[in-house]
Design goal:
Blueprint (H helix, E strand, L loop, with lengths): L2 H16 L12 E2 L12 E2 L4 E2 L1 H13 L1 H7 L4 H7 L12 H10 L2 H24 L5 H24 L7 H7 L1
Length: 177
C-alpha cells in the first residue's frame, strides 16, 4: 500500500468506528465499556480503530514498548500490571474509572496516536493481502474488502465476494452489497 492508500484507509476506518461516519474524523482517546457495542463483547474497546479485548492489550503493549518512559509516567492506575497479569478477553472497566482515564491518556498521547496509526496500517496491509489471495486484484476493491474485513471479519468478505460479479471491482462490490 502507498502512504496515500494507508491514509485513506485510516480516514475511512476511523470515521466508521469513532468519527461519526465523517471521513477524516476520529477519536484516538475513545474508550468503550464492555457490552456497549454488542451484548457479545465481554471486554473494553479502545482507540480510533476500536480495538477490542486482546487487540486493546496489544495496542497498549505496543505503546509501552515504543515509549516506556511515557507509559510509566501516564500509568497512574496500574495498567502495566493489568497488561501483564489480567485476562484481556474479559477485561472490563467503567469508563469513569481511574483505569479507564489512564488508558485514555495513554492512547491519546502522541505516541499512542502514532501506534494506533501504525497498527491500523499493519492490519489493513494484512487484510489487503487476504483480499488478493481471494482473487481481488483491483486496489480500490481490495481496500473495500479490507473495510469489510475490519468491520465484520473474514466471513463478511467471503460472503460479499460470493455475491459479487467478477472481475472484483469497486462497482461490483457496491452492487453486491
Amino acid at each position: 500500500m502507498t502512504d496515500y492508500e494507508k491514509s485513506v484507509m485510516r480516514n475511512i476506518i476511523y470515521a466508521v468506528e469513532t468519527g461519526g461516519q465523517v471521513y477524516g474524523n476520529k477519536n484516538y482517546g475513545n474508550f468503550t465499556e464492555a457490552y456497549t457495542n454488542s451484548s457479545n463483547e465481554e471486554a473494553i474497546t479502545i482507540g480510533a480503530g476500536q480495538w477490542y479485548a486482546t487487540e486493546a492489550q496489544r495496542l497498549l503493549n505496543t505503546i509501552r514498548t515504543k515509549n516506556p518512559a511515557l507509559s510509566a509516567s501516564l500509568d497512574t492506575a496500574g495498567i502495566g500490571s493489568d497488561l501483564d497479569n489480567r485476562n484481556w478477553s474479559t477485561y472490563r472497566e467503567s469508563k469513569n474509572s481511574d483505569k479507564a482515564r489512564c488508558i485514555v491518556s495513554i492512547i491519546d498521547s502522541e505516541t499512542g496516536r502514532q501506534c494506533q496509526d501504525a497498527l491500523l496500517d499493519e492490519q489493513m496491509e494484512g487484510y489487503i493481502q487476504e483480499a488478493a489471495a481471494l482473487g481481488v486484484n483491483d486496489m480500490d476493491a481490495k481496500m473495500m474488502c479490507a473495510n469489510f474485513r475490519h468491520q465484520g471479519g473474514r466471513g463478511a468478505v467471503t460472503r460479499i465476494l460470493a455475491k459479487t460479479d467478477q472481475p472484483y471491482t469497486l462497482d461490483h462490490l457496491y452492487a453486491a452489497c
